[in-house]
């Protein structure tokens, strides 16, 4: 399959996982409920005082404590410190979730079989363990191949037999984004998907100067490339 810019379509740079943020100090277990309540009330008052402001509240999330478990250095390993609101977003979905996610958004009849062989790339965890998946070039490349297989099954339908045009691609990209991301795409995101659909770069297979073959991209495959570009973005691969 040709190397194509569409799986580099990291809409708005969304596939870049945010860096770690400095955590604030936590509260003592007996004071946690009071502090959390005070912070919620304070955040609510700030919102009421600036109802016309679009800036999100900077109030931290509540601290959660478990039963104390003192580890090396006298540190309580059960305590969870405060972090910024939504500081745990844009995390890659675990492999266990991706096994069913493709079928959920594409339909069970279009579920890509390649996902069953991609556990090592998507961070499959050993029994009784959880591993945080790490984004990498290999992760994104594999995700695109998995998405393309499923999307190619979707675009085998007769409705995709005509080449994409600006109008039809805009409608379809908007629909895919809503279905795959559970939110509406921005105009720039839709435009990026449309650009992929309108790309007519020929596909090249094989090894250079040996058995290399170039062929024109058929309409269903052009639609599939656009579909896969949306399905390989952070809107689907992260939560």
Give a structural overview.
This protein is an all-alpha fold and 239 residues long. The chain folds into 2 domains: 20-88, no CATH class; 90-237, no CATH class. It is 40% helix and 3% strand. The chain is built from 7 helices and 2 strands; from the N terminus they run H-H-H-H-H-E-E-H-H. It has helices at residues 29-49, 95-106, 137-154, 166-181, 187-198, 219-231, 234-237, and strands at residues 203-205, 213-215. A two-stranded antiparallel ribbon has the order 1-2. Residues 1-30 and 43-54 have low confidence and may be disordered.
Quaternary:
single chain
Average pLDDT, rounded to a whole number, is 77
Tell me the distance between the termini: 29 Å
The topology string of helices and strands comes to HHHHHEEHH
Please bin the fraction of helical residues.
40-55%
Number of helices: 7
SS class = mainly alpha
What's the domain count?
2
Radius of gyration: 23 Å
- Strand-residue fraction? under 5%
Rough outline? elongated
Spatial arrangement of strands, main beta sheet: 1-2
Low-confidence stretches: 1-30, 43-54
What profile does the largest beta sheet have?
2 strands, antiparallel
Q: Please give the number of β-strands.
A: 2
